């Protein structure tokens, strides 16, 4: 007779044996791919860990007792069956990595307390059921990477797009209007600063370097005329992106 999905029972002994030391010396509890259906209460006795990996299980709910993990810096909950997150997650002030990708989260069930994670640097919300992004996420001033791919978003609030330290925003495969697709393809503006000075403000050596470079440029401009035949760049017609979509791309090494 087939058994129902009760999931594997995690004991304190199993949990202790699943603790590993991360590259920076932190204690990481890895309970990924264990067939867990409910949050293991026994791990509350290991609340002094630095990293917690519960990814690739079948967990539907994270209890408010998650707030006991006050030292937690890294929390991976991706690829479960989560439909909501507790507001208590906002108490994890040391958290810099949060992956809740590939769940069943809706915008309505994202807690407002997410905007309290002031030290968060990486947030992955991809592969969920989000139809909008809370503007409150704009309070996460330390955020460097955010994944919003594979949702049902039609826009991204400016408060998120203009986060001061944001370097990577993945919003691929969302039903953005045609007029905004180009805008969301690369929302991070990269500005190269150009400093202009007068010749009198340069020292002799710097001035000579600038003059030499200018002379070289003038020689190139006044040199052999370009061929009449239009140059061909076949290699530029092929995709050259090295982006990867796997989950490991979002794990901070």
UniProtKB/TrEMBL annotation:
It holds the Pfam family LRR_14. Transmembrane segments: none annotated. InterPro entries: Leu-rich_rpt, Leu-rich_rpt_typical-subtyp, LRR_dom_sf, LRR_domain-containing, LRR_R13L4/SHOC2-like. PROSITE patterns: LRR. SUPFAM superfamilies: L domain-like (SSF52058). Signal peptide: none annotated. It comes from the Eukaryota. It comes from Ciccaba nigrolineata. GO terms for cellular component: cytoplasm. The gene is Lrrc18. Keywords: Leucine-rich repeat, Repeat. This is LRC18 protein. Residues 66-194 form the Disease resistance R13L4/SHOC-2-like LRR domain.
């Amino acid at each position: 007779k087939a058994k129902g999905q009760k999931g594997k029972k995690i004991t304190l002994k199993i949990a202790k044996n699943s603790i590993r030391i991360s590259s920076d010396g932190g204690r990481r509890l890895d309970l990924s791919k264990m067939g867990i259906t409910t949050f293991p209460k026994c791990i509350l006795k290991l609340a002094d860990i630095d990293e917690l990996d519960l990814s690739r299980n079948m967990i539907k709910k994270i209890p408010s007792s998650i707030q006991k993990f006050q030292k937690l810096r890294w929390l991976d909950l991706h690829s479960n069956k989560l439909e909501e997150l507790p507001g208590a997650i906002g108490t994890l002030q040391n958290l810099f990595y949060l992956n809740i990708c590939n769940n069943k989260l809706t915008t309505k069930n994202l807690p407002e307390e997410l905007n309290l994670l002031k030290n968060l640097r990486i947030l992955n919300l991809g592969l969920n059921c989000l139809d909008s992004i809370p503007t409150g996420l704009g309070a996460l001033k330390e955020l460097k990477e955010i994944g919003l791919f594979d949702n049902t978003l039609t826009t991204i609030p400016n408060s998120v797009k203009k986060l001061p330290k944001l370097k990577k925003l993945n919003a691929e495969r969302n039903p953005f209007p045609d007029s905004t697709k180009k805008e969301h393809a690369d929302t991070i503006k990269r500005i190269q600063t150009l400093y202009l000075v007068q010749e009198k403000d340069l020292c002799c050596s710097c001035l000579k370097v600038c003059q030499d470079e200018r002379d070289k440029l003038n020689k190139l401009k006044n040199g052999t005329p370009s061929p009449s035949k239009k140059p061909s760049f076949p290699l530029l017609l092929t995709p050259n992106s090295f982006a990867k979509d796997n989950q490991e791309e979002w794990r901070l090494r």
